[in-house]
Amino acid sequence: MGNPAKLLRLYGVLMIVFLLSCEPPPCEDFFYEVTAVELIPRKVDQPTIGHALWRNEDQLPTGSLVFRLEMFKPIQSGGGAMSDECRPKFINTNPAIGLKLISNKDFNSKYPAGSNLIENISFSLFDSRKISEKAFLESQFNQTNWNYYYLGFKNLPDTKDLHSLILSVSLSDGAELKSPATEVLLTP
Fold first, then answer.
1. 173: which strand partners?
2. Which residue has the higher pLDDT, 188 or 77?
């Protein structure tokens, strides 16, 4: 029988080699670029916020309206199998740096037609927790694979009117994405 100390060292080296060979491959980050955005009006319908259809003919108050912001995020490269050991990052290769929400009609005296309504918007996912535009851009638009989010007005309009809204996203390369115009009846 051999030297027990040498056998113990040999066993330790073999265990290390075995453990290293069983290690999962390193996680690869996913790289994507947002190619389009769209605003889809939805009616707040607790507990499934934002899943009911918004119909202008129902003439609901604006407080019952949320917009489902669809973000088309095709993966450009990277990634692999996800598991409990591998949680890759999702990275927008052309990050958004700002948002504008423009209406063709006066919202109220603070927001005349053509002004940016984005400071009057709150951002949320499924629940009532709201985040800022900056937090939305940093954590949701630029660093996740979630392809939708909800936007809602913080304040109500002064008068009832049919608004045509366009969301504009400023990108870090100087380009701008614009949503198709979305017509919604906004009521106080």
1. none
2. 188
